[in-house]
Amino acid sequence: MRSRLTSTHFVGRVGELSELLLAVREASAGRSALVLLGGDSGVGKTRLVGELEQRLATSGDEPPALVLRGEGVQQSDGELPYAPLLSALRPLVRGRHPALEALSAGSRAQLGSILPGIAASGATDETHDPASGQLRLFEAVLELIDLLSQPAPVVLILEDMHWADRSTRSFVAFLSRSLRQERLVLLLTYRTDELHRRHALRPLLAELDRLERARRIELEPFDRAELREALADILGAEPDKHLVERLYARSEGNPLYTEELLAAGLDGRGAAPQSLRDAFIGRIERLSDPAQQAARAVAVGRALSEQTIATVTGGDRDNTQTALREALAEQVLITDQDERFCFRHALLREALYDDLLPGERGEWHLALALALEEKDSTGDRELERATTIASHYAAAGDQPAALRASVHAAQFAGRVHAYGEVSELVERALELWPRVSEDARPTGVDHVDLLAMAARAYGISGQWPRSEVLFRRALDEVDPDSDPLRYASLLSRLARIQRALNRAPEAIETAERALAMLADQEGARERASLLAWLGRTRWLRGRYRDAIADAEVALAAAIEAGDRSAEGEVLNTLGMAEIMLGELPKGVARLRQAIEIAREVDDVDGIATAYGNLADLLGLSGRTREALEVAQEGLELTPKRFIRSYDWIEMTVSDVAFRAGDWELSRSSLCQSAARMSGVAFMFRQLRGAELALGEGEDEIAESCLDSVENLIRESTEPQWIALHGVLVSELGRRRGDYGAARAAVENALDRIEVCTDDIKRIARISAAGVRVEADRAQRARDLAERAELRDALARARLHVGRLEAAAGEGGPVERAYMAEGKAEMARARGRGGAPQWAKAATAWEDVDRPYEAASARWREAEALVSAGERAPAAAAAGRALQTATELGSKWLSDEIRVLAERGRLELDGARASNGSAVTAAPEPQDPFGLTPRERQVLALVAQGATNRQIGAALFMAEKTASVHVSRILSKLGVSGRTQAAAIAHRQHLA
């Protein structure tokens, strides 16, 4: 017997260890890190992690970094939820870490669902929407990590992620996207040789690898020098070079394989084992029969107590202890932190498990299932116990017991929001159901219940097509006449799935069928929930009057059912719909009431949602400053750990601050990384980024943001996103002179939202963008004498102005400002200057505290005044516009104003605009007027306000020659004056 198998001296891996220690130092400074540590089986990942843990413990830092370490568990179907996370957090509970006491009551309750020792007495954290349950659990873990990391950095190590269950993978994705300034290193280890092409971990690794904070480390086998160093430590003497060569040839530098070759007495001579598994099995076979039996039990059970091993092997205490001592001495088994017996390396357990005959495995699995069922069900491992029993019964082939245990485990997994595992367990139960006789099936649940349970779990997990199939199968098995309440309940859940699949009209029809079946005297809570959902769905589609009708009934039903959360949700919908229909005081009061209810029931998500909606609607109604104050108040009341809600309210602050003219706040409130977001939140982030970039003049950034959400916008049915995307795409195309694309963006948005919509606010905005495009088209057509194009542009502009007038008649000050702007654009389209109209538009925007829109209107006012030859008032308007544009940080608008000042010879703030002003370079234009290169040079100077003498001096020609050039240019352009020529040169990018 060899005294030890592994080297006590840490060999090699100097660079990898340094990389890990660097990550910890960065985390200590507030820069969280994500490390992906991969390598083949037995290459030394666990040893490297152990060395890191030891170095941190002896680093001398006070206090030292806190290391939380958990391992994935190999299950037949991966149905043990949160396995590595539970393993990492359990020592905190047993050690009664002070951070647990500092947790909020809601977070203690959430964590208590998976770690019962945490929950405070009587603590509850009911959420109205079960789909948010897992997110709330993850946010509770994030709060715990934040508390733990305050005195010292935290290193969270999740090993064997290739075995990680779906819920753990979801947690890792959440945590990786959510990290900001937390002092955390998240270290994930996995076997690269296990990752086949369709392995479930592959998509997650690809997603994580794209994150800025991620670093990937791949462990390679030992080279000969490193292998010699390890052998010298194990053997206690310098190894013979022939021994090193023989072992290196057979192990290929794999440390574990080398150790097992030595332990099996194979130093490179004799018949080589075909694999590491063969080497290990050879060593197992040299154990006594009782020790082999104990090892086989642990191979099936993974980690077992001494009592459980004695029960399943049939040995008494003394014999069991003797067998275990032998297995420990031979370093086949070790004990974990819970004093359970497990294998020294997971690969060794796999080898012995695979060596068992199918019948042997079944017997072991059945014995373990029975032993676990007989144990006391109390303690902090009840979740693990329930899922493990189900797994053992399924592997043993005991179908009735497997059905019963799978249903029980699925119910347990549902209580901890592990919906991926719920769906897998219930799918197993559905397969077993027809094979088990009726009297042997579990009581209290039928086939419809199982179908609905699986459908709900798939729906919450985002697997909507499968969810729809299962809900329809459940409906097929229910008689609507004899059980209308159950049928309606299934219909209402199917409607939500159809809505998620972007089939809103079908979803509403399904929901209305469900409502018709719900009698007034029964199913009050179901009816209230369905009406609330239906009202919100109609609101999102711009059907505000229908939303109010549904929400009024839902409000009465929620009050009757005593459901305060539903009441708050309905008030939210009612308030928004009323504001959009012009009932501002009433709607604001509703939203304020929704905020108070959310505070009353301690619903942080509800608080953030109501504040965000109130701020958004106040901004849309022209109360911009008040909207910004409300958004900031909501942000202060939303803890950062509520990632989804915090991100949303922070983006709302960015949105309202942009309108209010605080672009610095708007930039700082916009999350710089959109990688952690998905769905509607991703759309909001990217559209916000595009609008800010366009405002600043960063067109390429705006284009990138818009392209990233194009597919999501195409699938959306919500006017708020369709209209904003259309406006921004239109503005980008307009600035680039691509009027076809700009017009198409406007028309597409109008086509998608105008039919039967009550959303006049979005109609007004997209119509204003439309008339802006047509005014540009009309100007260009007039410059180029394209009469048909001019007539078409004017006709389209009139249609847009008609929409704006209708919107202004029904809407508020913002819609009236859009109408004033539209009329000014119409004057520009007709070539009539429109300075008074632009002044009126600027005043209208100033009245609602929208400085960016006001500055743009003042610029156009100045442009019209220049064309009319009124230089003094033009300079005043341009000066006001330039001051605002500069304060905002709008480079493109500042450049436009400066160019206008140059060609109009305007004095801004007492100083002439310099020819050296920073002007964005334009692409080389195409000249439709037939100007020669020399004439183009002359026109550029004309556009800058140069006289004939100045032109001659600049281009080394006589003043008379310059005059001739100017006359020819005016003739080719079809204009009578230098100012008109300068305007055309600017519009056509000829100067």
Descriptive notes:
With 991 residues, the protein is mostly helical. Helix 11 runs parallel beside helix 12 and helix 45 packs across helix 48. It is built from 48 helices and 9 strands. The chain starts with 13 loop residues before the first helix and ends with a helix. About 2% of the residues have low confidence. The longest helix is centred in the last third of the chain and has 24 residues. Among the domains are: 207 residues, 3-Layer(aba) Sandwich (Rossmann fold); 48 residues; 83 residues; 55 residues, Winged helix-like DNA-binding domain superfamily/Winged helix DNA-binding domain (Arc Repressor Mutant, subunit A, Orthogonal Bundle), CATH 1.10.10.10. The strands form 3 sheets. It has a 5-stranded parallel sheet, sandwiched between helices. The chain has a two-stranded antiparallel ribbon with strand order 6-7. The chain has a two-stranded antiparallel sheet with strand order 8-9.
